[in-house]
Specification:
The protein is α/β, with parallel strands linked by helices. Helices cover about 45% and strands about 20% of the residues. The chain has 12 helices and 10 strands.
Amino acid sequence: MKDIEESDLKFSVLMSVYKKEQPVYLKECLDSLVNQTIQPNELVLIEDGPLTNDLYTVLDEFENQHPGLLNRNPLEENVGLGKALAIGVEYCRYSLIARMDTDDIAVNTRFEKQLREFVKNPKLGIVGSDINEFETDISNIVAKRIVPHSYEDILKTAKRRNPFNHMTVLYRKEEVLRAGNYMVLNGFEDYYLWVRMLKNDTLAKNVPEVLVHARAGRDMFMRRGGYKYLKDSKLARKKIHEVGLNSYMDYFLSTAGQIIVSIMPNQLRAYIYTKLLRKESK
């Protein structure tokens, strides 16, 4: 840790919360962020529209326990994840920003290990990691999403699939803004940002280990099916292709695969994601 402390790498954590999220999950997430071997300098939270009283209670209690750490930014109405995060990036005070979803749990060495990568290579613009996907609690791991680790493999994968686990990334604010920040693209806001950053020659890597436990379950698979998701995914694939990172064949094959997965029954889709597109937990 000594080399990281001497480098004085201050960073923000960026999150967005809305009224349908569970208070107990939010508390577990916030607790995991302060129980780190290297503490964040601020937690930037976008309150995406009015929240429930229980969610406000969790936030108020956390503020009392950790004064000055939580930077809350309430929005008058729900604007969706892409727009909320774009606003949040602008609010972040530090040049390094770590993303986190408010229902996931960070491993306590997450920030230390990611910051170490920026110390070793100051030219890096994005550092992510693998994730464990769990149901109910982190002891019930159902799958593991392993992403490409090297820059070359990230570039190759990005032509057809999302090469990062969004809730794990730590990136440079200037690189995000240079690529145009988050843009509204339902369900694909992060992937769309990555391809624009990679097209700008932003250097990237993924730490080859699990640094975040991500909450999964039936609802996650249901959201990735149906006509609306199919319509959104087709539009997203088109927009991603227009960036110019992938070929027409990459675009065609990734779109075809997305269509097939979107129209299949939810139980089969869950099997595809957990058994074929993920590594099954042992």
